[in-house]
Amino acid sequence: MTRALTITIGLGLVALLAVLLLLNQCTATRNAKTETRLATGQAGATLVSGSDAATTVGNRMDADAATDQTTRENTNAIRHAEGADAPVSAPVSAAARASLCRRASYRGKPECVQHPDPR
After folding, report:
1. Cβ-contact 98, 84 below 8 angstroms
2. What b/e sequence results for 15-50 when a residue is b if at least 16 CB atoms lie within 10 Å of its CB, and e otherwise?
3. For residue 1, what pLDDT is reported?
4. Burial code of 54-69, b = ≥16 C-beta within 10 A, e = fewer?
5. How far apart are CA 116 and CA 108, in angstroms?
6. Which tens digit of pLDDT belongs to each residue from 17-50?
7. How far apart are CA 105 and CA 99, in angstroms?
8. CB neighbourhood size of 100 (10 A)
9. pLDDT value at position 111?
10. What is the pTM of this model?
């Protein structure tokens, strides 16, 4: 083999190696960009999902508070209505109290707290 042929083959191998390294670097860069884009999208989706969940909980709490306020206003109107101090039979009174005690706004009231059996 001649010296020129050996040099040409050597330069060809070096060029081939450079091309292979360049292709590998381009693939790695493209994969990194794709992973970054996916991670950014997932982070954004997580933020939106968390925000939606917080909004849902807040809306539910507002609705519950409004319902409880209406219940308290209704009870106040009933207790201050004409004839509210008239005697009511014990079973009717117990049924009404049990009905009110199932509402969240009355659970902490003394007449709604169930006391343990004294046995």
Report:
1. no
2. eeeeeeeeeeeeeeeeeeeeeeeeeeeeeeeeeeee
3. 63
4. eeeeeeeeeeeeeeee
5. 16
6. 888 888 888 888 888 888 887 777 777 777 777 7
7. 12
8. 18
9. 83
10. 0.35
